[in-house]
Amino acid sequence: MDNVKELVVKGRLKKIEPAVQEALDAGASAQEVLDIMGVAMDEVGLKFQTNEIFISEMLAAAKTMQRGVGVLKPLLGGGGAAKLGKFIMGTVAGDLHDIGKNLVEMMIEASGFEVIDLGVDVPAENFVQALRDNPDCKIIGVSALLTTTLDAMKETVEAIKESGIDVTIMVGGAPVTPAFAEEIGADVYTPDAGSAAEKAKEIAAALA
Ligand code: B1M
């Protein structure tokens, strides 16, 4: 596990897959390996903040984590046919962070939803258009990782509300708080991928 963490922090892309496999073989659970990679990313964020590393190194760490997550994916998600309906998700305009979004999508998909991924840097109108294109979709997820893109999250929620489309709006991401979610009129805030998937299942059950 220490090796996995160090490889993510240092952005050692080529070495991460065998290291993750080694940690699993040694008895670590997929969730534990995922958690340690999250700890590594926090360390990377701190190093960036204190000018110890450059953006290129932060990007290398992100790519390394993403590749490591690839090894865990079959273990974290049960897969199976989508039974709970569609779930549209994206990261707001101006924001390129997608590791957290991808994890949320992975857990939601594993819970039985068909996930429609809008990607990153998604303008508010594209969220609305995706809902128009998928009128059977009853839940949408909006992610933001920068304090500077919280305004874009607000605009996105407003645009969806103004469209009159009947959909439950879930929001999340590191700078998002329950109070902010309430202030902008989002329906649900969850702090992480696991709780997002749980909440989405609850919503789908209530709508069924
Ligand atoms: Co950026 N970045 N970054 N970055 N980056 C942060 C967020 C930062 C905190 C680093 C720091 O300074 N300490 C800081 C933001 C400061 C702030 O706004 N207060 C920052 C900055 C400043 C920037 C740039 C502006 C740097 C620059 O250019 N000067 C720039 C912005 C680019 C842009 O978006 N326009 C930038 C760029 C990048 C990279 C491209 C290099 C890379 C992203 C690569 C990628 O995503 N493909 C990157 C990275 C990797 C980070 C850190 C280090 C790690 C983010 C991450 O992947 N975490 C990050 C520091 C940190 O987070 N500690 C940082 C792991 C991931 C699993 O967690 O994304 O939080 P997270 O997702 C969680 C929850 O938040 C939640 O569930 C997820 C899983 O449990 N969640 C939801 C997320 N969405 C949800 C939605 C939900 C529910 C839960 O419902 C719908």
Defining key terms:
binds CO-5-methoxybenzimidazolylcobamide; Methyltransferase, Methionine Synthase (B12-binding Domains), Chain A, domain 1; globular; 9 helices; alpha/beta; Rossmann fold; five-stranded parallel beta sheet
Topology:
Layout: H1 2-10, H2 13-25, H3 30-49, H4 55-76, E1 86-91, H5 99-110, E2 114-117, H6 124-133, E3 139-143, H7 150-163, E4 168-172, H8 178-183, E5 188-189, H9 193-207
Parallel strand pairs: 1-2, 1-3, 3-4, 4-5
The protein binds CO-5-methoxybenzimidazolylcobamide.
Structural class: alpha/beta
Top CATH class of the largest domain: Alpha Beta
Which ligands accompany this protein? CO-5-methoxybenzimidazolylcobamide
Tell me the count of domains. Answer: 2
How many helical elements?
9
Regions with little confidence, pLDDT below 50 for 5+ residues: none
What name does CATH use for the topology of the largest domain? Answer: Rossmann fold
Fold and architecture overview:
It is a single chain. This protein is α/β, with parallel strands linked by helices and about 210 residues long. It has two domains: about 1-80, Methyltransferase, Methionine Synthase (B12-binding Domains), Chain A, domain 1, CATH 1.10.1240; about 85-205, Cobalamin-binding domain (Rossmann fold, 3-Layer(aba) Sandwich), CATH 3.40.50. The chain has helices at about 1-10, 15-25, 30-50, 55-75, 100-110, 125-135, 150-165, 180-185, 195-205; strands at about 85-90, 115, 140-145, 170, 190. A five-stranded parallel beta sheet has the order 2-1-3-4-5, sandwiched between helices. The radius of gyration is 17 Å and the shape is globular. The chain binds CO-5-methoxybenzimidazolylcobamide. CO-5-methoxybenzimidazolylcobamide binds next to helix 3, helix 4, helix 5, strand 3 and strand 4.
